[in-house]
Design a protein that fits this description.
Distance between the termini of chain B: 37 Å
Number of domains of chain A: 2
Order of helices and strands of chain A: HHHHHHHHHHH
Oligomer: heterodimer
Largest sheet of chain A: none
Number of strands of chain B: 10
CATH topology of one domain in chain B: Rossmann fold
CATH architecture of the largest domain in chain A: Orthogonal Bundle
CATH topology of the largest domain in chain A: MetI-like fold
Shape of chain A: globular
């Protein structure tokens, strides 16, 4: 029998612990600094013009040197384009992920789909815009419109939705599916009533990330929704505006007044994405099982 | 009304691997049958072939016949879904649906299969929870999540969920292996009560449990390493545990191997 004594933590180990702790905190600070400085700049510069006028007026008839003007047309355009893009890509993405996880199960077709989804993830946003320009606008002769922009955005959203949904569905334990089958519940009903609700919170988060990503895309919009200074509430007809386009457009104008408008546009965009996120979180929380505990 | 189960010449495969071979047995209505045997000898696989849950696993298939009251469950045109409504199952680990309340968990089989009025479902939920000896513990918090219960309560919730769809047969795959002795006793008592309404088949690694609860016992064993599992002996439980006819059975129950 050997006797054991309680050992004290040696000075060397304590020093190493301190060192690593410091490094981790430093790394965290380095990661957070850009975030905070971006937020700070946007808020500081954007607040100057963040008023009711800005939110309710378009840029119709307002030049670079004129004060006033707003981004109502761009806010409206962004909301419509993102909504349309979500309406296209979320159902397709969800169904694709369900197929991959619940039905495909590593077969040849599902491996091919997985591969192409990965390829799609890497498509630069300009290329998505060019594709819609070439196919929808030039080849089919459709007009520049919010819908054309939504098509380009949905190409960018789809792989993100598929991937995040797939991950979440894979996290649902097989036990639950079996429990449902063993009750005599058909497979499709098991997916709709058991698997999807269990993964709902994660799926909503994934969709929100995808929306946040495309809401700030500029390049594909330039090629598909074009520019306008007027309000166009019809996303299927004629050029529209989007907030990223608005920021881009105002920022390159030569006056401080226009640049201020660009900052405020950027602030508005951040606020919209945050608001959407908040709403989605609320919905997910409201539906979550842990609430009643 | 419970019905007789007759199995004849049943083989089950995982891909090309044959897991069980040539199993034949008759299980009488309103009895408890225990399957015992060393790990990996196909007890659970066989249990899962009885309600067509085996084929849920990719590449798994079954050959042979399972007759429930004379009708072949593997006959052409038989819907696996309808088989599972007649033959319910309780799993090794309690698996209540995490997104559902206690009430919704018990009602799941009814609700997920559509129809039925609220009052009817209310009645079935209450009788099922009473049947699973859980009613008194949960009647004041039916709206709370099922996952918030203790392990033993969760398992009884799963039993309530299984009996709510009024199956003929109840399959239990090591239902007490994750539970403490008091919860185990509660479930064993419950099985003795449920026997009057259902035919129960239980897989267990606990020999005392098999001896305590079952009327008949089947001993499963592998013919050898990598060989499919078979039924070595099936008889009255009292006979199996006092005077088995096979040497292997005696060795196993006396703890000489396995």
């Amino acid at each position: 029998m050997t006797t054991h004594t309680v050992q004290r933590v040696s000075t060397g180990r304590r020093l190493k612990d301190r060192l690593v702790q410091t490094l981790v905190y430093l790394a965290f600070a380095v990661a957070v600094i850009p975030l905070i400085s971006v937020l700070w700049l946007v808020i500081k510069n954007g607040l100057a013009r963040f008023d009711l006028d800005f939110l309710t007026h378009s840029m119709r008839g307002i030049g670079a040197r004129d004060i006033g003007g707003g981004a109502y047309h761009a806010i409206l355009g962004t909301l419509e384009q993102v909504l349309l893009a979500s309406l296209i890509s979320v159902p397709i993405g969800l169904l694709t992920a369900i197929y991959l996880v619940e039905y495909g199960r590593g077969g040849r077709l599902s491996r091919a789909i997985s591969f192409f989804v990965d390829v799609m993830t890497g498509i630069p946003s300009v290329v998505a815009g060019l594709f819609v320009l070439a196919f929808w606008v030039l080849a089919l002769g459709m007009p520049f419109s919010g819908f054309a922009g939504a098509l380009a955005l949905s190409i960018l959203m789809m792989p993100t939705v598929v991937r995040s949904t797939e991950e979440m569905l894979l996290l649902v334990p097989g036990d639950l599916r079996e429990a449902s089958y063993a009750l005599g519940v058909p497979k499709w009903r098991t997916i709709v009533k058991v698997v999807l609700p269990t993964a709902l919170t994660g799926i909503v988060t994934g969709v929100m990330l995808a929306i946040a990503r495309v809401a700030g895309e500029t390049a594909p919009l330039m090629l598909t929704v074009f520019f306008t200074d007027s309000i166009n509430s019809d996303p299927f007809n004629g050029p529209q505006m989007g907030l990223p386009l608005y920021v881009f457009d105002q920022a390159r104008r030569p006056t401080d007044i226009a640049v201020d408008r660009a900052w405020t546009g950027a602030l508005t965009l951040i606020l919209i994405v945050m608001l959407l996120n908040l709403v989605a979180r609320l919905i997910a929380w409201w539906r979550s099982p842990a609430r009643g505990r | 009304m419970s019905q007789q189960i007759q199995v004849s010449g049943l083989d089950a495969y995982y891909g090309r691997h044959k897991a069980i071979e040539d199993i034949s047995m008759t299980i009488e209505p309103n009895t408890i049958t225990a399957f015992i045997g060393p790990s990996g000898c196909g007890k659970s696989t066989f249990l899962r072939t009885l309600n067509r849950m085996h084929e849920v696993i990719p590449g798994a298939r079954v050959e042979g016949k399972v007759l429930l009251d004379g009708e072949d469950l593997y006959g052409p045109g038989v819907e696996p879904v309808s088989v599972r409504r007649m033959i319910g199952m309780v799993f090794q680990r309690p698996n209540p649906f995490p997104t559902m309340s206690i009430y919704e968990n018990v009602a799941a089989g009814l609700r997920l299969n559509g129809r039925r009025s609220k009052s009817e479902v209310d009645g079935i939920v209450e009788t099922s929870l009473k049947g699973a000896n859980l009613w008194n513990e949960v009647k004041d918090r039916l709206g709370k999540p099922g996952a918030g219960l203790s392990g033993g309560q969760q398992q009884r919730l799963c039993i309530a969920r299984a009996i709510a769809v009024r199956p003929e047969v109840l399959l239990m795959d090591e239902p007490c292996s994750a539970l403490d002795p008091i919860s185990t006793l509660a479930i064993e008592d419950l099985m003795a009560e449920l026997k009057s309404q259902f035919t129960i088949i239980i897989v267990t690694h606990n020999m005392q449990q098999a001896a305590r609860v079952s009327d008949r016992t089947a001993f499963f064993n592998l013919a050898g390493q990598g060989q499919p599992g078979r039924v070595i002996e099936m008889d009255e439980t009292s006979r199996i545990f006092t005077n088995p006819s096979q040497k292997a059975t005696e060795d196993y129950i006396t703890g000489r191997f396995g």
